[in-house]
Amino acid sequence: xxxxxxxxxxxxxxxxxxxxxxxxxxxxxxxxxxxxxxxxxxxxxxxxxxxxxxxxxxxxxxxxxxxxxxxxxxxxxxxxxxxxxxxxxxxxxxxxxxxxxxxxxxxxxxxxxxxxxxxxxxxxxxxxxxxxxxxxxxxxxxxxxxxxxxxxxxxxxxxxxxxxxxxxxxxxxxxxxxxxxxxxxxxxxxxxxxxxxxxxxxxxxxxxxxxxxxxxxxxxxxxxxxxxxxxxxxxxxxxxxxxxxxxxxxxxxxxxxxxxxxxxxxxxxxxxxxxxxxxxxxxxxxxxxxxxxxxxxxxxxxxxxxxxxxxxxxxxxxxxxxxxxxxxxxxxxxxxxxxxxxxxxxxxxxxxxxxxxxxxxxxxxxxxxxxxxxxxxxxxxxxxxxxxxxxxxxxxxxxxxxxxxxxxxxxxxxxxxxxxxxxxxxxxxxxxxxxxxxxxxxxxxxxxxxxxxxxxxxxxxxxxxxxxxxxxxxxxxxxxxxxxxxxxxxxxxxxxxxxxxxxxxxxxxxxxxxxxxxxxxxxxxxxxxxxxxxxxxxxxxxxxxxxxxxxxxxxxxxxxxxxxxxxxxxxxxxxxxxxxxxxxxxxxxxxxxxxxxxxxxxxxxxxxxxxxxxxxxxxxxxxxxxxxxxxxxxxxxxxxxxxxxxxxxxxxxxxxxxxxxxxxxxxxxxxxxxxxxxxxxxxxxxxxxxxxxxxxxxxxxxxxxxxxxxxxxxxxxxxxxxxxxxxxxxxxxxxxxxxxxxxxxxxxxxxxxxxxxxxxxxxxxxxxxxxxxxxxxxxxxxxxxxxxxxxxxxxxxxxxxxxxxxxxxxxxxxxxxxxxxxxxxxxxxxxxxxxxxxxxxxxxxxxxxxxxxxxxxxxxxxxxxxxxxxxxxxxxxxxxxxxxxxxxxxxxxxxxxxxxxxxxxxxxxxxxxxxxxxxxxxxxxxxxxxxxxxxxxxxxxxxxxxxxxxxxxxxxxxxxxxxx
Length: 964
Known about the structure:
Ubiquitin-like (UB roll), Rossmann fold, alpha/beta
C-alpha cells in the first residue's frame, strides 16, 4: 500500500475565496486567483512567501503585525498584503528595499521584547518568529527589553508557585495539556481570533497596552483551567511562538515525521496529523485538509490519546475457567485454542444458535465486517449486533422507511448554508464539539436556531449566540412536540406543495395531512402534556417553515426512547413538508455518538441485515455472500443484544464474542445485563482494558488502539476516512488480525494479509461501497457513500433529484406514551447525556488528564426539587428507580426544569444504567435511556449495591503473577 502523500500544507496566510478570476503581477510574475483573494495569498499561490506573524489561513486577515507590507504600483504607502484584496492588473512588489527596511525594523521591535532563549526553547525549529527573523535578515537588535512593568508585577503577585521572576512573567501551567508563557507572547492575537472565529468560545482577550499587552484567559482571577477555555487546542495551533505550547513537545522535543489518520472518538470523524519522534507520538494536530473538521479539533481528539500507553492496558491474552478465578496470562495460541474449543463445544451441546457476537462502533469498518462475518460464515448464524442497537438503530429504521436510506442527508459543510437550524435531542457542544463550532459560526453570521431539549444546553445561550426558541419539552414527549410543529405547518398552509407533489407520494401526504391536522395535535392541546408553551411552539414552526434553508440535527435524545423510530419519522416528515431535503443548508442529519457507529451499521452488524442494509431473508442478497464466502447463510434473523441477554438468562444462549464494547456499563438495566453475562459459559472480551463486561469474561484478547491499525471509519456524514497505522500494535496484532486468528482457530481458513483486502471484499459485496478502495481514498482523502459507478467520487448530498426509495413517504406518527410513568414513589424524570471532556463509558478518557474536568458523574437537579428534599449543592444523594438505585453527588442548576434530573454515564462507580429500565423502542429495541421515573433522597455515600459491585469488580480483575 503506497504512503499517503500529504497535499500542499503551506500556510497561505489568509483563507481561500471563491469568485471570478483576477490576474495581477507580483514581483514580475503574472498570477491568476479568485476575486477577493488577498495579495498575500496570491503571492503564496505564485510561490512567493511574504513574511507574516499575525496572518494564518485558518483565520480572517487581521493586519496588526505590519510584517507583510508590500508596495503596490499607483498606491501610496505600504499596505499590509494580508488585508489588501487583489484587483485586475495590480502590480505588486514584495521585496523592494523600502519594504525590506520596514520589515527589518518591525521584526527588531518584536525581538526586543522577546526572550532570546531559542536554543533551549520548546519551539526551537518550529517557531514562526524565529523563521521570520531569518527571512527578513535580522542580525542585530538595537533596543533593550523594557523592565518588567506593572502588568508583570500583577502577574507575579498571582504566581501560585511562589517563585519570583523579575525579568519575565510566570508561566500558567494550570491546563494539563499545554502551557502559557506570557513572556514569549508577541500579541499577534492569533490565539484570541482562533478562540473566536474557529472555536466560538470567546475565552481569550488581550489586556494591557504597549509592552504590557498580553493574552488573558477569562477574568484576572482565572487561569487557563478555570476560565471558559474548552482546551480545543485552536489557540495552541494558532500560536506562532512558544507562548502556547503542548507539554508533550516540551517533554519529548519537536516531532520530525507525521502520519495522517482519523480520530477515534465521536462521529464527527476529524482528521489529524499524528506527529512523532521515531515511534513516539508527540502530538495530534488537526489536519487542515480534513473535510469533516477543516483543521479544527476538540479536547478529546487533540489531547486525550494518552490512554494508548496507560498502565491499565492489557497487552497479553488471558483466560480462566470460571469468573470466580483470577486471570491467567497465556500465549496467543493457547488463548485462541481455549476460546475456539469452548465456543465449538457450546454449539455442540446447545445448538448452532447458542453463541453470537457484538461488533464495535470504535473499531474499523474492516474489523467490524470480519466480526459479523465470523457470526455468519463461521458460527453459521445471524446472532450479531452492535452498540448502534442502543443508540441510533431508530435512525436506520426511521430514515429507511421515509427516505429509503439509513443515514444522514448532508455533509457538515452544508451547515454554512443553513438559515434555520433545529437541534433536537442533541448537545453538540459537548457531544460533537467540532461540528458545534461550525454551527456556532453560522449562527454568528445570522442563522436562526431552534433547540428542542429538556435541558438548557449551551447552544440555547452562550457567547455571541442565542437560540431564537428553546422548547423545553418533558422527557418522553418528542413525538407530540414534532407532531405539533407539523400541525402548525400543515394547518397554516406553510408546507411546500410543489415539492411534495414532485418528490413525495401525494396520496400518502393527504392521508398524513388529515391525521396531523386533527386538533389533538395542536400546540394548545399538547401543551399540558409536553410542557412547551403553545405560542412559542407555533413561532418555532413558522420560523422553520418560512425562514429559508432549514436543517435538522438530532441525537440520542431523539432515538433513545420507546418511540425513537416514530420521532425520526416525524423529523423526516417535517423536512419533506417544507422541501428541506436534497439541497444545501437543509436535510435531516443524525449526530452519531461513536467514531464508527455509522460504519458498524453499514457493515451488516444487525442480526436481520447483511452489509449494505439488505435483509438476510432475501435469497438474492444471501447468494452474493454465499458465493464470496463459500458457505450457506442462515435466512433467519438472529438475536439482538437484549434478546441475547434474555436467552442467556433462560439458558439457551451460552457464548459471546464481544469486540470493543462494554455492554455492562453502556446497556440499560445493569443488573439484567450482569445476570445474562453470568449465565453464559464462555464470554470473550476483545478490548484494551479489563472493562466492566470483562468482570464476567472467560477469555480476554488484548485489542489495539486506532493509532496501531490500518482501516477506515465512516462518520456521521457517511464519510469514509482512512485510519493509518501510526505505530506498531503493542499487543502484537491489529484487531482484524485477532478476529481472523479466532476464526481460523475455529476452522475458517481466512488468509487476509492487509485491511485493504477486506475493503476489496466489502466493495465487491456492498453496492454503496462498490467504488471504494484504498487507492481512491489516498487520492481523494475521503469519500461519502454511496460511492459506485453512478457516483464514482462519492455523494456529499443525498436525495438531490429524488429519494433513494423513489417517492418520499410520509409516515403516520401517533403519540403513544411510554409505559414508564412517574408517580408518588418516583415523581421525577431522569434523562442522561454526555459531557465535553469525557466519551461514552469513559474507558479511554478516564485514563487521560481529562478527568481534571470531570472526575465523577454528578446529578443535576433543579433548586426547587432539591429544596423540597433537603438536598444542598455537593451533597450525596440516592437516585432510585423501579430497576435499582445508586448514589452520586448533586449539583443544583436551573439548566433542568423542575421535575427533571440529569446525569452522565462516564464513570462505572456510578453505574447510572442500574437505574434505567428495560423499556425500548417499539421497532428496534433501542433502550429508553432518556425517560426513567426516579426519586431523590439524601444519602451518606455509595449504596450497598455500589460497594458490592466494586468488590466483585476488584475480585474479577485479579491477575496471577506470570510464571517464572
